Amino acid sequence: MMTKSQLVFKAVDILCYQMQNHVHFPLIEQVQDVAYSPEGGRATSGNLFFEKTRLASGEKLPILVNIHGGGFVMGDKDYRESLCEFYAHNGFFVFDINYRMPPEVVFPVLCNDCIDALNFLPTLAVDYPIDLDRIVVSGDSSGGYLTAYVAALAYDEKLREAVGGHELKVKLAAIAPFCGIYDVETLLDGTLPSGLIQDTASMLFGFHVNHGLSNLKDYKYIDYVAPSEYVNENWCPVFIAWSDSDLICVGQGAVMAEKLQKNCKVVGTYHCDGLLNNHCYHLNFHTREAKKCMAAFLRFMHQLKILP
Fold first, then answer.
1. Which helix (DSSP H) or strand (DSSP E) does residue 262 occupy?
2. CA 193 to chain CA centroid, nearest Å
3. Measuring CA to CA, how many Å separate 95 from each of 33, 76, 87, 158, 221?
4. What is the pLDDT of residues 72-107, one digit of tens each?
């Protein structure tokens, strides 16, 4: 039986599926369920997206690893089909991954699965013309958190040792978190119902969080769960997008962007507001703000020469 948080995020995926996946692009080929680890079956696999003509040209393509959202406890790579087709249409080879989620696993295993997917890319490059010098990681919502946490683990050895994080064996050219959660403790002070946060936190951490979250400070990794606390000058270039009207990740994007701009060498941003431009607005391809956001992302990738 699903918990209340699983039911909520499952309902969001179902209700938003058609709106977020009705746009398709020509000449895109998809290969499903490519395993990057033997441990989790389909949960540790990804779908490949690429444009046939680009692949046929023989040129090496930049690769984008996409991490889906879903409140840490739900979601699936198959809910990001239009987004991944968009990336492929604009020149990326895309690896759209799943990762194991609670209650099967708890933090930081979700993060380690994402690292394992990245470490699989040299193996993928044996069969596909991908450029391992142009690796981008992107994700939305909890996938935005995982995107940022991958960077935190990659660029802070002490954090990696503290949580038992996997070592990243490839070099990141850039990351692009969208509408992410970057400080879990701050999220707890937001607008989500406390019961939903309590349930999600208990599942994610494998630690019973009391009503009112009064014992969260006793969680053994509580000092290590916020990637925003581990931003440093070694981070690769970052494109971060958010909505100032986000009802789920209230204030998270602006605060994270400020930290990135103070500490990182290259940062691109896009944000908007308005009730209709809410959480993960960039997935609604028919809207003006989604189009502007994704255009800003592409400009940033061109400026970095990740895209030609």
1. helix 252-263
2. 23
3. 10, 13, 10, 29, 30
4. 999 999 999 999 999 999 999 999 999 999 999 999
